[in-house]
């Protein structure tokens, strides 16, 4: 099939152009009119094969002029005119015309060659562009796939890290609780041992009474055994044990708030209670004298996933504690601003340098020693609060401590992630 | 390769004057037209725009007859030097049997010379010609000017190449025929190899050059 774009037949511009083609491109009418006027006799233009191209074919060959355009004869001008001057003039006219035609034909052929060259190189460029476009398309599709793969790897890793962060906070909790429960259980055990000794003393008094001794003998035994003190101390022991039991019961009650760490259902909670409980739980593992200064104002209940909010409170208190090198005060304030409950946690530690404060919420950023912290505590807090429709901010003044503030909306957020999804 | 037309007993050899814009290609041809008187010489055809810039090409036909009756026809072409006319340049260069690269000796033209020569090499490759076998003469023109690159520097740069270097002033008229003679020698060698110029047509290199290089007085 012929390519419609190549409708012009291409010829070499520098080929030898025969006389008939040159004449075809020349102004034949004017040329013959001029030749008629000059020669005043019949004439004809013939090519090398004696074919008449212009003029009268029956014209007699009385005079002949050779037409040389470049180096060789192209044809002849034949005429019945015998005047050599007129013949020369006529020949010059013909040559002028065909030289002009030659120029035109060569230039136009070269022009076509150049244009088609441009066109074909454009086509080639176009093909190359299409090929490179296809290449980049494949690459971009591949890239998309690669990125998706990477994202999924990162998500999985992140989920695992958050999971381990959660376990770490549960670990903190367990250590504190164990310490808190150990103390009352210790003195309850010790008291019960003493009580058993007292019981043995009582048993010996009983055997004195049962053996039918005299009242005087019983009194002596009573006095020897210091039964008055014993009964009084027994009462104290039992009171201590009851108190210890109560304390364990209180700790267990506190713990219950954290027992549903993974519970996904939202319930309305009193944030103030969570603040106190978290401080109680934290206090056990703080290991030094930290004073909590509460300024907890009346706030409406917050609808949230309590396990996560407990995790946030505990993490922030532990952070405040870690920020202080010696003894110190952690001030916690809760209050209502518009439809948000705001909680400020302030420590009076050395504060955070301004050069790193912008990075504290970044994943894996930590100032703690290797193995001490993973740098996910604040990241996890921020993610949890964002998922609850809340916010967290931090400001710090060198030597004047750090203030972490978070707020939660009173109305419950409706766009919680579904079961199994992770806060991101 | 030269075009051999057995029917008309004609061998057409195409020689192309290549080079950057306004380096003196047309002036080379004009000089040869005005000062040489070969056995056969045609009119010079110039296709130029206003301001004497070559638009398509210039053409100077000349030739000689061999004892065998063969007409050796030389067609000397120039290309348009301006960068934009590359397709035209390539079309003119096609089927070339020899090239004179006319460089501009002026200091500020070094880059143009280099780019034009790279363009020549690229077009030779694109046209399926062979840079290693195609006769090429490097001509440093405009030696009559003042701010020009020294002969020593030119030679140190081009000595490593297989192409002979000539120095000329097309305007003052020296070095032009020397360049042309060098090209003719090389072109003869090629044509002789393929068409038996000496054995079949009875013309040797010396006659060939001498007949075409006859000076008109």
Structure description:
The complex is a heterodimer of chains A (424) and B (217). With 424 residues, chain A is of the alpha+beta class. Chain A is 55% helix and 16% strand. Chain A is built from eight helices and eleven strands. In chain A, a hairpin with a 4-residue loop joins strand 1 and strand 2 (52-55). Mean pLDDT of chain A is 83; it is low at 413-424. In chain B, helix 2 crosses helix 3 (110-126) and helix 5 (176-195) packs across helix 6 (205-212). In chain B, strands 1, 2, 3, 4, 5, 6, 7, 8 and 9 form a nine-stranded mixed beta sheet that branches. The chains are: A alpha+beta (424), B alpha/beta (217). At the A-B interface, helix 3 of A face strand 2, strand 3, strand 5, strand 6 and helix 2 of B.
Largest sheet of chain A: 5 strands, mixed
Poorly predicted ranges of chain B (pLDDT <50, ≥5 residues)? Answer: none
Briefly note the structural class of the backbone of chain A.
alpha+beta
Roughly how many Å apart are the termini of chain A?
A: 62 Å
Order of helices and strands of chain A: HHEEEEHHHEHEEHEEHEE
Count the strands of chain B? 9
Number of helix segments of chain B? 6
Helix content of chain A: 55-70%
The residue ranges of chain A in which pLDDT falls below 50 over 5 or more consecutive positions are 413-424
Can you write the helix and strand succession of chain B as a string?
Answer: EEHEEEEHEHEHEHH
Give Rg of chain B in angstroms: 17 Å
